[in-house]
Amino acid sequence: MKTPLKTTTPKRSLLPLALPLLGAALLHSACDQDGPVSEPVALAVTPLSGTSCGDPNSPTPGPNPFSEVSSISVAVRAWDSTTSLWSTLVKSSQSLREGQAVKLARVPEGTGRDVIVFAQGAGKSWYGRDTGVAVKRNSDNAAAMVLTRFGGFSCVPTPTDIVNTTFPSAVTLGDGRILVTGGFTDVSSDGGGTKLTAASNQAFLFDPRTGATEVLPNLGVNQGRAGHTSVFLPSKNRVLILGGMTELTLDESKPFPWVYDPARGRDDYVIFDVATKTFTAGTDRMTAKRGFPRAALLADGTVIITGGGKWPFDPAGTDQIQVDMFDPEDDDGQGGLLDIPPLRTFYWRAGHSLTLLDQAGGLSTLLLWGGTTPDRSLGHPAEIFRQSGRQRDGVNGTFIEVQITGEASPFSYFHETTRLSGGRFLVTGGSRFANGQLQAPEADDAWLLTYSELPTPKLQAKKVPGFGAGRV
């Protein structure tokens, strides 16, 4: 069952040429010979107004902001290293008439500028932003951005040859583009039950600055996968795409219906070269087949890979409790899995989270949360990983158990953990383990975790009311 998206591709609108209502919108100023040098900044704006939202057989048309905008605000900001705050260099807000230009005087030269557009329509507001803009003398100084719904969702159009998928992987590249790979494309029902199958090897890039989608060559022969993960490797401008599965069973008799057979998992990886837009299969294998693994880039450029086993746990399995390390510098710079002494997490983890805690001293510390049952983790579903400064020499980092105070979230499978400031983390969603199996997500609260190092590693867990909807 392949269901292609029915979409339209957005057209790039370069102001001042293509806005029917805005007419010409141009940031500019004359050079001030006696003060800071000022230069014009031209806006390249794309309306994200495709028709890919909702049912692909009857998509919801995306409204075009250019047809209703009546007023606009444009601002240029710069980061102030002294105050550690953004400062507004220049800003203009005004109502619009057809054919009217928006003018900003005195946009100072400099790098790392933010250009922000806020447009108000009759019924909706629209927002666009370009970061890292360099304002130079005698230059066009283009700022490219996509206008999206402010306080709402916008449709992302994709070419018709991109097939709808379930459980793909997405990762942000160094230039802000997003690489999306894989995912299941078929649902089949036979004597063995209902299954997600036909893991795709498709790949495409989405550019949030322009709204454009680019179809890429596929991952390679026999490289189709879903439920995998991807990590951007900035030192090589490449992406590590690893693990995943080729099949996933849907058992509707279970409260949490997804059933994973590790025999359908993948223990290999693919490397995407951003510059050449090519995929290359890895030559070695992880210690285990990993479905829904977790991976994180460490401060020295290596990647730690954890979990990805059968959920809620596999009483006969030990492989997925082991950790793999990938090094982009291995194999003469081609990248490969490091041959390291055995390194294991304390507890079996599947559907857990792996989140950066800090990078003090040039070494990464990560929080592992959930993906284990209360009886197996002794009621403490967290542990800390501290990176080694000599991982490439075969000296492993260490895992440290973390005591939980307060009330730990029971929804510890397939949740989301978001790093906040001050050693805090917000845990939302997830499925709990009860009565011997995973349960369906419930409408319950989120949890705030606060980490303290001394005298012993602890996490204080506190309910945060108001989440109001169960989800995984």
Helix/strand/pairing class, anyone? mainly beta
Largest sheet properties: 8 strands, mixed
| Rounded radius of gyration (Å) | 25 Å
| Unreliable spans | 1-35
Helix fraction by DSSP (H/I, runs of at least 4): under 10%
Shape: globular
Number of helices: 1
Mean residue pLDDT? 86
Regarding quaternary structure, what we see is single chain
Number of strands: 35
Q: Strand-residue fraction? A: 35-45%
Distance between the termini: 24 Å
Question: What order do the helices and strands come in, and which of them pair?
Answer:
Elements: E1 13-14, E2 26-27, E3 41-47, E4 69-80, E5 85-95, E6 110-121, E7 125-135, E8 142-149, E9 169-172, E10 178-181, E11 184-190, E12 193-199, E13 203-207, E14 212-215, E15 229-233, E16 238-242, E17 248-250, E18 258-259, E19 269-273, E20 278-281, E21 294-297, E22 303-306, E23 324-327, H1 330-333, E24 336-337, E25 353-358, E26 365-369, E27 382-386, E28 398-401, E29 403-406, E30 416-419, E31 424-428, E32 433-434, E33 437-438, E34 446-452, E35 458-464
Parallel strand pairs: 3-8, 29-35
Antiparallel strand pairs: 1-3, 2-3, 4-5, 4-6, 6-7, 7-8, 9-10, 10-13, 11-12, 12-17, 13-14, 15-16, 16-19, 17-18, 19-20, 21-22, 22-23, 23-24, 25-26, 26-27, 27-28, 30-31, 31-34, 32-33, 34-35
Summarize the structure.
By secondary structure, the chain is mainly beta. It has one helix and 35 strands. Helices cover 1% and strands 39% of the residues.
